[in-house]
Amino acid sequence: MTRLAELPYWTAADAAELDALTYELVDAVFDHRERGCTVCAAGVEPCPRVRAAIEVVACWRRRRILLSRAKHLRLRQELDHVLAELRELEEARCAA
């Protein structure tokens, strides 16, 4: 599996946002356990509330990957278009 940091479209900002969300999730899970959730305290599996919170972060991550990839591809497409236009202008200038 490819690490996020190896993806050309995964930015430092994406990583920082995921770090912040992960930190908040872990902090909230510890607080949740300390407030007395017996399911989580057993340490076998998280309770439905914690599982739902984990899924929120996992869904955010999947969406961010897709959005960042789409933005990256759009910028590459626009750059390719601009470079093609510049080549055409250069060719026209050289032909004149």
Overall description:
- The protein is mainly α.
- 78% of the residues lie in helices and 0% in strands.
- It has helices at residues 12-34, 38-41, 48-95.
- Helix 1 packs antiparallel against helix 3 (48-95).
- It is rod-shaped, with a radius of gyration of 23 Å.
- The N and C termini lie far apart (52 Å).
- The mean pLDDT is 94.
Biggest sheet overview: none
Arithmetic mean of pLDDT: 94
Based on secondary structure, the structural category is mainly alpha
Residue stretches low in confidence (pLDDT < 50, at least 5 long) are none
Termini gap: 52 Å
Topology:
Layout: H1 12-34, H2 38-41, H3 48-95
Which keywords apply here?
3 helices, mainly alpha, 96 residues, rod-shaped, 78% helix
Q: What is this entry, summarized?
A:
By secondary structure, the chain is mainly α. Helices cover 78% and strands 0% of the residues. It has helices at residues 12-34, 38-41, 48-95.
